[in-house]
């Protein structure tokens, strides 16, 4: 569950800053990515853990309403449903504190129960608001079955670099790529160099997202700077999740990597139109309404 507060600036240590807006909505990286994929037309099953509380029930009702499979959603009595506290800055940028709570109780056994569904999937998309061992188990199952693994290494936990080695497609944002590389990224050109280097960990494809600057794509024979779509941004919470879902959806539908990255940028931009994540995750029809970026991506190789 997301509790979004609008602030003029982030507080300093020991400081209290007054918020001038508060919005509560369903959210969380796994929920956002699953919902975004479903709204784009995908057949989605979610493997997660929710608390046996009012928030957990709200999520279950919502997933069923959206048409997301919930047969692999665990209930947890010893921890509450996870919550997040996005602080929204002027122009839509944010900083987020997450308490995954029940999500961190998602077990390897739960993944094993979902093994037939994972093996039959077109793709596996996952993030790291779950235990690293659970993520590794799901990735291993998918790889053994020849299912493409898309990893969004967020938050960038200590195990993220090792987990990245098992991903087919790695989708970090600027800060996550910096953490994985141990170097600073300032420009799209920097991001492209980082994407190239991150491929040495094992992923065939790496896309570093840079928010309103666009994204940098490195794939076999392809290096491309992908321009961002322009929208009147209100809140970027969920934009990265919409990007990941758009990339998976487009690739599974047969798009090339540059085409998939462009579609993903459109999805990410549309997620910034209003406060909160899930209320603004786009449909395929929404994406068709966007005007393409005025500057084409630059491709090499």
Your description of this structure?
With 301 residues, this protein is α/β, with parallel strands linked by helices. The protein is 35% helix and 19% strand. The protein has eleven helices and 13 strands. It has helices at 29-39, 54-66, 108-113, 115-119, 132-144, 160-164, 174-181, 188-198, 239-252, 257-270, 284-288, and strands at 2-6, 21-25, 48-51, 73-76, 83-88, 94-99, 124-126, 149-151, 169-170, 205-209, 215-219, 222-226, 298-300. Helix 9 packs antiparallel against helix 10.
Rg over CA atoms, rounded to whole Å, is 18 Å
State the secondary-structure class.
alpha/beta
Determine the mean pLDDT: 93
Tally of strands: 13
Oligomer, anyone?
single chain
Low-confidence regions: 296-301
Proportion of helical residues: 25-40%
Walk across the major sheet and give the strand order. Answer: 7-8-9-10-11-12-13
Specify the overall morphology. globular
- Our estimate of the beta-strand percent is 15-25%
- Count the helices. How many? 11
Write a brief caption for the model:
With 301 residues, this protein is an alpha/beta fold.
């Amino acid at each position: 569950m997301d509790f979004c507060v609008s602030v003029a600036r982030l507080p300093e240590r020991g400081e209290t800053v007054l918020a001038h807006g508060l919005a509560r909505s369903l959210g969380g990286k796994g929920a956002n990515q699953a919902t975004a994929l479903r709204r784009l037309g995908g057949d989605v099953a979610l493997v997660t853990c929710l608390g046996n509380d009012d928030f957990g029930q709200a999520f279950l009702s919502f997933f069923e309403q959206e048409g997301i499979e919930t047969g692999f959603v665990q209930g947890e009595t010893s921890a509450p449903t996870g919550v997040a506290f996005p602080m929204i800055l002027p122009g839509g940028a944010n900083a987020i504190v997450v308490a995954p709570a029940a999500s961190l109780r998602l077990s390897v056994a739960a993944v094993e129960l979902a093994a037939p569904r994972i093996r039959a999937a077109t793709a596996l998309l996952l993030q790291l608001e779950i235990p690293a061992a659970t993520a590794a188990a799901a990735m291993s199952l998918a790889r053994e079955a020849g299912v493409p693994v898309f990893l969004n290494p967020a938050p960038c936990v200590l195990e993220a670099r090792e987990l990245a080695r098992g991903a087919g497609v790695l989708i970090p944002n600027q800060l996550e790529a910096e953490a994985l590389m141990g170097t600073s990224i300032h420009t799209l050109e920097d991001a492209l160099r980082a994407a190239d280097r991150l491929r040495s960990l094992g992923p065939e494809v790496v896309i570093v997202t840079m928010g309103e600057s666009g994204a940098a794509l490195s794939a076999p024979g392809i290096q491309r700077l992908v321009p961002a779509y322009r929208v009147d941004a209100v809140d970027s919470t969920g934009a990265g999740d919409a990007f990941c879902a758009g990339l998976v959806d487009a690739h599974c539908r047969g798009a090339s990597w540059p085409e998939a990255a462009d579609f993903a940028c459109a999805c990410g931009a549309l997620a910034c139109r209003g406060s909160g994540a899930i209320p603004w995750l786009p449909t395929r029809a929404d994406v068709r309404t966007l005007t393409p970026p005025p500057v084409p991506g630059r491709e090499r190789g």
